[in-house]
Amino acid sequence: MYVRQTDYEVPRRKYEWADGVRLELGERTLIMGILNATPDSFSDGGRFDTVEKAVLHARRMVEEGADLIDIGGESTRPGSEAVAVEEELRRVIPVVEALRRALPGVPLSIDTYKAETARQSLEAGAHIINDVWGLKGDGRMAAVAAEYGCPVILSHNRHAGDYIDLVGDVVADLKGSIALAKHAGVEEANIWLDPGIGFAKTYEDNLQLMGRLTELSALGYPVLLGTSRKRFIRHTLNLPVDDLVEGTAATVGAGIMQGCQIVRVHDVRAIKRFASMTDAIVYGPAESRKA
Protein backbone atom coordinates (compact mmCIF):
# COMPACT_ATOMS: atom_id res chain seq x y z
CA MET A 1 0.00 0.00 0.00
CA TYR A 2 1.18 3.56 -0.75
CA VAL A 3 -0.51 4.86 2.43
CA ARG A 4 1.36 2.95 5.10
CA GLN A 5 -0.63 1.71 8.07
CA THR A 6 1.00 0.44 11.25
CA ASP A 7 -2.00 -1.04 13.02
CA TYR A 8 -3.47 -3.34 10.36
CA GLU A 9 -2.87 -5.00 7.02
CA VAL A 10 -5.50 -5.18 4.31
CA PRO A 11 -6.42 -8.87 3.93
CA ARG A 12 -6.33 -10.42 0.48
CA ARG A 13 -9.02 -12.90 -0.46
CA LYS A 14 -9.83 -14.81 -3.64
CA TYR A 15 -13.19 -16.49 -4.16
CA GLU A 16 -14.36 -18.77 -6.95
CA TRP A 17 -17.80 -20.34 -7.02
CA ALA A 18 -18.97 -23.50 -8.78
CA ASP A 19 -20.68 -21.41 -11.48
CA GLY A 20 -17.35 -19.83 -12.41
CA VAL A 21 -17.95 -16.46 -10.75
CA ARG A 22 -14.80 -14.97 -9.22
CA LEU A 23 -14.08 -12.16 -6.79
CA GLU A 24 -10.81 -10.77 -5.43
CA LEU A 25 -10.26 -8.55 -2.41
CA GLY A 26 -7.16 -6.60 -1.52
CA GLU A 27 -6.02 -5.06 -4.80
CA ARG A 28 -8.56 -2.23 -5.04
CA THR A 29 -11.84 -1.12 -3.55
CA LEU A 30 -14.80 -3.20 -4.70
CA ILE A 31 -18.06 -1.45 -5.54
CA MET A 32 -21.25 -3.15 -4.34
CA GLY A 33 -24.29 -1.81 -6.17
CA ILE A 34 -27.52 -1.57 -4.18
CA LEU A 35 -30.61 -3.16 -5.71
CA ASN A 36 -33.70 -2.69 -3.55
CA ALA A 37 -36.60 -4.87 -4.68
CA THR A 38 -38.81 -3.09 -2.16
CA PRO A 39 -41.68 -0.58 -2.16
CA ASP A 40 -40.40 1.42 0.82
CA SER A 41 -36.60 1.72 0.96
CA PHE A 42 -35.52 5.17 2.11
CA SER A 43 -34.12 6.52 -1.15
CA ASP A 44 -35.35 4.36 -4.05
CA GLY A 45 -38.31 2.37 -2.74
CA GLY A 46 -40.62 1.21 -5.51
CA ARG A 47 -38.28 2.12 -8.37
CA PHE A 48 -37.02 -1.41 -9.04
CA ASP A 49 -39.82 -3.58 -7.68
CA THR A 50 -40.38 -5.62 -10.85
CA VAL A 51 -37.96 -8.17 -12.26
CA GLU A 52 -37.60 -6.21 -15.49
CA LYS A 53 -36.77 -2.96 -13.70
CA ALA A 54 -34.37 -4.75 -11.35
CA VAL A 55 -32.45 -6.38 -14.21
CA LEU A 56 -32.16 -3.12 -16.14
CA HIS A 57 -30.87 -1.30 -13.06
CA ALA A 58 -28.39 -4.06 -12.21
CA ARG A 59 -27.08 -4.04 -15.79
CA ARG A 60 -26.65 -0.28 -15.58
CA MET A 61 -24.74 -0.52 -12.31
CA VAL A 62 -22.39 -3.16 -13.72
CA GLU A 63 -21.77 -1.01 -16.80
CA GLU A 64 -20.96 1.88 -14.46
CA GLY A 65 -18.42 -0.18 -12.51
CA ALA A 66 -20.20 -2.29 -9.90
CA ASP A 67 -18.23 -5.43 -9.00
CA LEU A 68 -21.13 -7.13 -7.22
CA ILE A 69 -24.84 -6.54 -6.71
CA ASP A 70 -26.62 -6.59 -3.34
CA ILE A 71 -30.29 -7.59 -3.58
CA GLY A 72 -32.68 -6.72 -0.77
CA GLY A 73 -36.37 -7.44 -0.31
CA GLU A 74 -36.98 -5.71 3.01
CA SER A 75 -36.29 -2.11 3.93
CA THR A 76 -34.08 -1.59 6.98
CA ARG A 77 -34.69 2.16 7.25
CA PRO A 78 -35.68 3.42 10.74
CA GLY A 79 -39.37 2.83 11.36
CA SER A 80 -39.83 0.31 8.57
CA GLU A 81 -42.10 -2.67 9.20
CA ALA A 82 -40.83 -6.24 9.16
CA VAL A 83 -41.68 -8.29 6.09
CA ALA A 84 -42.82 -11.91 6.30
CA VAL A 85 -40.37 -14.40 4.83
CA GLU A 86 -42.89 -15.44 2.18
CA GLU A 87 -43.17 -11.86 0.91
CA GLU A 88 -39.43 -11.34 1.02
CA LEU A 89 -38.93 -14.51 -1.02
CA ARG A 90 -41.56 -13.39 -3.52
CA ARG A 91 -39.63 -10.17 -4.04
CA VAL A 92 -36.06 -11.45 -4.26
CA ILE A 93 -35.98 -14.98 -5.68
CA PRO A 94 -37.20 -14.03 -9.19
CA VAL A 95 -34.66 -11.19 -9.20
CA VAL A 96 -31.79 -13.48 -8.16
CA GLU A 97 -32.75 -16.01 -10.83
CA ALA A 98 -33.07 -13.34 -13.53
CA LEU A 99 -29.73 -11.73 -12.64
CA ARG A 100 -27.99 -15.08 -12.64
CA ARG A 101 -29.06 -15.42 -16.27
CA ALA A 102 -28.55 -11.79 -17.29
CA LEU A 103 -25.21 -11.19 -15.52
CA PRO A 104 -23.57 -14.64 -15.29
CA GLY A 105 -20.15 -13.35 -14.23
CA VAL A 106 -21.29 -10.98 -11.48
CA PRO A 107 -21.35 -12.04 -7.80
CA LEU A 108 -24.74 -11.56 -6.16
CA SER A 109 -25.28 -10.79 -2.49
CA ILE A 110 -28.57 -11.34 -0.68
CA ASP A 111 -29.35 -8.64 1.88
CA THR A 112 -31.38 -10.46 4.53
CA TYR A 113 -31.32 -11.48 8.17
CA LYS A 114 -33.67 -14.43 7.60
CA ALA A 115 -32.06 -17.84 7.22
CA GLU A 116 -34.71 -19.23 4.89
CA THR A 117 -34.44 -16.27 2.55
CA ALA A 118 -30.67 -16.67 2.53
CA ARG A 119 -30.90 -20.41 1.86
CA GLN A 120 -33.36 -20.12 -1.03
CA SER A 121 -31.42 -17.20 -2.52
CA LEU A 122 -28.19 -19.20 -2.46
CA GLU A 123 -30.00 -22.08 -4.14
CA ALA A 124 -31.30 -19.64 -6.77
CA GLY A 125 -27.80 -18.39 -7.57
CA ALA A 126 -26.68 -15.87 -4.96
CA HIS A 127 -23.09 -16.07 -3.73
CA ILE A 128 -22.88 -13.97 -0.55
CA ILE A 129 -25.05 -13.35 2.53
CA ASN A 130 -25.30 -9.77 3.79
CA ASP A 131 -26.83 -9.95 7.27
CA VAL A 132 -27.64 -6.60 8.89
CA TRP A 133 -28.05 -8.37 12.23
CA GLY A 134 -24.67 -10.11 12.20
CA LEU A 135 -26.15 -13.63 12.59
CA LYS A 136 -28.07 -12.51 15.68
CA GLY A 137 -31.47 -11.95 14.04
CA ASP A 138 -32.11 -15.58 13.11
CA GLY A 139 -30.41 -18.37 15.03
CA ARG A 140 -30.25 -20.55 11.90
CA MET A 141 -28.36 -18.08 9.72
CA ALA A 142 -24.85 -19.08 10.80
CA ALA A 143 -25.59 -22.71 9.94
CA VAL A 144 -26.80 -21.71 6.47
CA ALA A 145 -23.62 -19.71 5.82
CA ALA A 146 -21.50 -22.65 6.98
CA GLU A 147 -23.47 -25.19 4.95
CA TYR A 148 -23.10 -23.25 1.70
CA GLY A 149 -19.51 -22.20 2.35
CA CYS A 150 -20.20 -18.65 1.22
CA PRO A 151 -18.89 -15.29 2.38
CA VAL A 152 -21.12 -13.72 5.02
CA ILE A 153 -21.12 -10.02 5.87
CA LEU A 154 -21.59 -9.49 9.60
CA SER A 155 -23.05 -6.06 10.20
CA HIS A 156 -23.12 -4.36 13.56
CA ASN A 157 -26.60 -3.70 14.93
CA ARG A 158 -28.45 -3.39 18.22
CA HIS A 159 -32.05 -2.97 19.28
CA ALA A 160 -31.01 0.11 21.28
CA GLY A 161 -27.97 2.35 21.18
CA ASP A 162 -27.11 1.82 24.83
CA TYR A 163 -23.34 2.13 24.48
CA ILE A 164 -20.87 2.55 27.28
CA ASP A 165 -17.89 2.88 24.94
CA LEU A 166 -19.19 3.22 21.36
CA VAL A 167 -16.29 1.87 19.33
CA GLY A 168 -15.26 -0.64 21.96
CA ASP A 169 -18.84 -1.90 22.14
CA VAL A 170 -19.13 -2.12 18.35
CA VAL A 171 -15.92 -4.13 18.19
CA ALA A 172 -17.07 -6.39 21.02
CA ASP A 173 -20.45 -6.96 19.35
CA LEU A 174 -18.79 -7.83 16.05
CA LYS A 175 -16.47 -10.24 17.84
CA GLY A 176 -19.62 -11.89 19.16
CA SER A 177 -20.91 -12.29 15.60
CA ILE A 178 -17.55 -13.68 14.51
CA ALA A 179 -17.75 -16.23 17.32
CA LEU A 180 -21.22 -17.30 16.20
CA ALA A 181 -19.94 -17.76 12.66
CA LYS A 182 -16.92 -19.78 13.68
CA HIS A 183 -18.90 -21.94 16.09
CA ALA A 184 -21.24 -22.88 13.24
CA GLY A 185 -18.31 -23.79 11.01
CA VAL A 186 -17.99 -20.68 8.82
CA GLU A 187 -14.45 -20.53 7.50
CA GLU A 188 -12.26 -17.61 8.57
CA ALA A 189 -11.81 -16.48 4.95
CA ASN A 190 -15.60 -16.21 4.52
CA ILE A 191 -16.12 -13.64 7.28
CA TRP A 192 -16.51 -9.97 6.32
CA LEU A 193 -17.42 -7.14 8.69
CA ASP A 194 -19.61 -4.04 8.42
CA PRO A 195 -19.60 -1.30 11.10
CA GLY A 196 -23.36 -0.82 10.65
CA ILE A 197 -23.30 2.92 10.04
CA GLY A 198 -26.83 4.21 10.68
CA PHE A 199 -28.01 1.20 12.68
CA ALA A 200 -28.79 1.94 16.35
CA LYS A 201 -26.44 4.91 16.27
CA THR A 202 -26.96 8.63 16.74
CA TYR A 203 -25.65 11.30 14.41
CA GLU A 204 -22.66 11.82 16.69
CA ASP A 205 -22.12 8.05 16.99
CA ASN A 206 -21.93 7.68 13.21
CA LEU A 207 -19.38 10.47 12.86
CA GLN A 208 -17.25 9.08 15.68
CA LEU A 209 -17.30 5.58 14.24
CA MET A 210 -16.45 6.89 10.76
CA GLY A 211 -13.29 8.40 12.23
CA ARG A 212 -12.22 5.18 13.93
CA LEU A 213 -12.76 2.52 11.29
CA THR A 214 -9.14 1.39 11.58
CA GLU A 215 -10.14 -0.28 14.84
CA LEU A 216 -12.39 -2.59 12.82
CA SER A 217 -9.80 -3.07 10.07
CA ALA A 218 -7.33 -4.12 12.78
CA LEU A 219 -9.47 -7.22 13.45
CA GLY A 220 -8.05 -8.70 10.26
CA TYR A 221 -11.23 -9.24 8.23
CA PRO A 222 -12.41 -7.50 5.06
CA VAL A 223 -14.55 -4.49 5.99
CA LEU A 224 -17.56 -3.36 3.97
CA LEU A 225 -18.77 0.21 4.42
CA GLY A 226 -22.39 1.12 3.71
CA THR A 227 -22.94 4.87 4.06
CA SER A 228 -24.66 5.69 0.78
CA ARG A 229 -27.24 8.51 1.12
CA LYS A 230 -27.65 7.81 4.83
CA ARG A 231 -29.28 10.17 7.29
CA PHE A 232 -26.09 11.39 8.96
CA ILE A 233 -24.92 12.69 5.57
CA ARG A 234 -28.28 14.35 4.93
CA HIS A 235 -28.13 15.91 8.39
CA THR A 236 -24.61 17.24 7.87
CA LEU A 237 -25.25 18.75 4.44
CA ASN A 238 -28.92 19.63 4.88
CA LEU A 239 -29.71 18.18 1.45
CA PRO A 240 -32.39 15.84 0.10
CA VAL A 241 -31.73 12.12 -0.20
CA ASP A 242 -31.16 12.23 -3.97
CA ASP A 243 -28.46 14.93 -3.75
CA LEU A 244 -25.83 13.27 -1.59
CA VAL A 245 -23.21 11.98 -4.01
CA GLU A 246 -20.46 14.29 -2.72
CA GLY A 247 -21.29 13.54 0.91
CA THR A 248 -21.31 9.82 0.24
CA ALA A 249 -17.99 10.14 -1.61
CA ALA A 250 -16.41 11.84 1.41
CA THR A 251 -17.40 8.94 3.64
CA VAL A 252 -16.16 6.43 1.06
CA GLY A 253 -12.79 8.17 0.92
CA ALA A 254 -12.52 8.13 4.71
CA GLY A 255 -13.38 4.43 4.69
CA ILE A 256 -10.87 3.46 2.01
CA MET A 257 -8.14 5.39 3.82
CA GLN A 258 -8.92 3.37 6.96
CA GLY A 259 -8.85 -0.05 5.32
CA CYS A 260 -12.41 -0.63 4.08
CA GLN A 261 -12.28 -2.82 0.98
CA ILE A 262 -15.89 -2.88 -0.22
CA VAL A 263 -18.31 0.05 -0.42
CA ARG A 264 -22.06 -0.42 -0.81
CA VAL A 265 -23.52 2.43 -2.86
CA HIS A 266 -26.44 3.69 -4.94
CA ASP A 267 -24.51 6.08 -7.21
CA VAL A 268 -22.13 3.63 -8.80
CA ARG A 269 -20.61 5.69 -11.62
CA ALA A 270 -19.54 8.63 -9.45
CA ILE A 271 -18.36 6.55 -6.51
CA LYS A 272 -16.43 4.17 -8.78
CA ARG A 273 -14.47 7.14 -10.14
CA PHE A 274 -13.90 8.54 -6.67
CA ALA A 275 -12.79 5.14 -5.34
CA SER A 276 -10.42 4.59 -8.28
CA MET A 277 -8.66 7.88 -7.54
CA THR A 278 -8.47 7.10 -3.83
CA ASP A 279 -7.17 3.61 -4.62
CA ALA A 280 -4.32 5.11 -6.65
CA ILE A 281 -3.28 7.03 -3.53
CA VAL A 282 -3.73 4.09 -1.16
CA TYR A 283 -2.63 1.14 -3.29
CA GLY A 284 -0.49 2.80 -5.96
CA PRO A 285 -1.02 2.93 -9.74
CA ALA A 286 -3.37 0.23 -11.01
CA GLU A 287 -0.80 -1.18 -13.42
CA SER A 288 1.72 -1.76 -10.63
CA ARG A 289 -0.58 -3.76 -8.32
CA LYS A 290 -0.18 -7.49 -7.99
CA ALA A 291 -3.21 -9.76 -7.66
Instruction: Supply Rg.
Output: 17 Å
Mean pLDDT: 93
In DSSP terms, counting alpha (H) and pi (I) runs of 4 or more, how many helices? 10
Poorly predicted residue ranges: none
**CATH third-tier fold name:** TIM Barrel
Description of the molecule:
- Helix content is 40%, strand content 14%.
- Helix 2 (85-102) packs parallel to helix 3 (115-124), helix 4 packs across helix 5 and helix 9 (245-257) runs parallel beside helix 10 (268-283).
- It has one domain (27-283): Dihydropteroate synthase-like (TIM Barrel), CATH 3.20.20.
- The chain contains ten helices and ten strands.
- The longest helix has 19 residues, at 166-184.
- Strand 7 (152-155), helix 5 and strand 8 form a beta-alpha-beta unit.
In short:
This protein is α/β, with parallel strands linked by helices and 291 residues long. Helix content is 40%, strand content 14%. The protein is globular, with a radius of gyration of 17 Å.
What's the arrangement of secondary structure elements?
Blueprint: E1 13-16, E2 22-25, E3 30-36, H1 51-64, E4 68-72, H2 85-102, E5 108-111, H3 115-124, E6 128-131, H4 141-148, E7 152-155, H5 166-184, E8 191-194, H6 203-210, H7 214-217, E9 224-225, H8 231-237, H9 245-257, E10 262-265, H10 268-283
Parallel strand pairs: 3-4, 3-10, 4-5, 5-6, 6-7, 7-8, 9-10
Antiparallel strand pairs: 1-2
Helix pairs in contact: 1-2, 2-3, 3-4, 4-5, 9-10
